[in-house]
Design goal:
The chain is of the alpha/beta class. About 30% of the residues lie in helices and about 20% in strands. Strand 9 (about 335), helix 10 (about 340-345) and strand 10 (about 350) form a beta-alpha-beta unit. The chain is globular, with a radius of gyration of 19 Å. About 55% of the residues are buried.
């Protein structure tokens, strides 16, 4: 469908209201050029920073939907308009500030699973599509392009989707690829999706969330925020080890990153989840801290940053391997015994024995 027609239609709604490691099938290829293409489009000035309640965001949503269609994915069983779940987002705006309910699309594509039973279980790969928009009163560059935050995460998700779609072996469980609205306004799109699932009689069993991977260097490790709480951590470690990437414990526990991105909306409905970010080895700590100090939520978070596009392809490969194991394993991921998140949000769900090094 032409973008102009789809944007016109969608604008009408912007109004108030423990698995064991599996034998991996032959891997598909991963393209640095594809990752770059997605970031360049999503972080372009034309999209004006992708604020959730803007035409730029709708253009981004249309772009993601067109990529899903081109890959041969299908809409989820219970969306509102094809690829789109129209999420209700309580956002505070205006002077004086006033909370009103707005609507904006989460973009969702499904790769159906091959197993007649397990295909009713869904593995989510999520990334927020929105950023913070533009500031017309700012001197100089007024556009907050959000290249790293979070065009890089959406690009990783899209390249992972391409890998699954072109793989010679269909995963046993279904994969739900999601570009989310309203993260910058308080995890609003993911909260709506988690509490209004689109999988019909199916069940979401895991979420791997991609938010602001720092693709400026050849990362040698990753941080799986929340990996110590469920078997998702073990799965990530096995996937990383298979390509020479280690998993580093959370280096900033005081920041409580596990509760600060979209995966946490799924945690609150009982789904084992991780938030995956490039790690601190091989110059990663300096790259991360420099980005936070100089570029985070600034107009300088744009395409002229010194991206390492091969790192983007590598990050997509790692996410593919994680999702592939979850999708093909005999049992879905489980919270550890005695874990506070599992005990609070997934009462009665099966548990896995807690390793000595795992957190509560």
């Amino acid at each position: 469908m032409r973008a102009s027609i789809l944007i016109a239609g969608l604008s009408l709604v912007l109004t108030p209201i423990a698995a064991q490691a599996q034998t991996a099938p032959q891997e598909p290829t991963f393209s640095a050029a594809e990752v770059r293409k997605h970031v360049e489009f999503l972080a372009s000035d034309a999209l004006e920073g992708r604020y959730t309640l803007s035409k730029g965001y709708l253009t981004a949503a249309t772009y993601v939907a067109e990529r899903f269609a081109a890959l041969g994915l299908v809409p989820a069983p219970k969306t509102d308009a094809g690829w789109f779940q129209i999420a209700e987002l309580p956002i505070t705006m205006g002077d004086p500030p006033r909370k009103r309910v707005y609507k904006a699309p989460n973009v969702i594509g499904v790769l159906p699973g091959s197993d007649p039973v397990l295909k009713n279980e869904y593995v989510v790969l999520s990334a927020h599509l929105d950023h913070v928009g533009l500031d017309p009163l700012r001197a100089g560059d007024k556009i907050y392009n959000g290249a790293m935050d979070n065009a890089s995460g959406v690009a990783t998700m899209l390249e992972t989707a391409r890998a699954f779609a072109t793989s010679k072996q269909r995963p046993k469980r279904s994969i739900l690829f999601v570009a989310l609205a309203g993260e910058e306004s308080g995890l609003l799109g993911s909260n709506y999706l988690a509490r209004n699932p689109v999988v019909g009689a199916g069940k979401v069993v895991a979420d791997v969330n991609l938010d602001m991977p720092i693709l400026l260097y050849d990362f040698q490790d990753v941080i799986a925020f929340g990996g110590e709480h469920s078997t998702m951590g073990e799965i990530t470690a096995r996937a990383g080890a298979s390509i020479g990437v280690s998993v580093t414990p959370d280096p900033m526990p005081e920041e409580q990153f596990f509760e600060r991105s979209d995966h946490y909306s799924f945690v609150k409905v009982g789904v084992p989840s991780i938030f995956l970010m490039t790690g601190f080895k091989n110059g990663g700590e300096k790259a991360f801290r420099t980005f936070l100090a100089k570029n985070y939520h600034q107009p300088s978070d744009q395409i002229d940053l010194p991206f390492n596009w091969e790192a983007g392809a590598k990050f997509a490969r790692l996410n593919y391997l994680i999702a592939r194991e979850v999708a093909d394993a005999p049992e879905a991921p489980r919270w550890y015994e005695g874990n506070r998140y599992g005990d609070r949000f997934a009462k009665g769900a099966p548990r896995a024995p807690r390793p000595a090094q795992a957190g509560k």
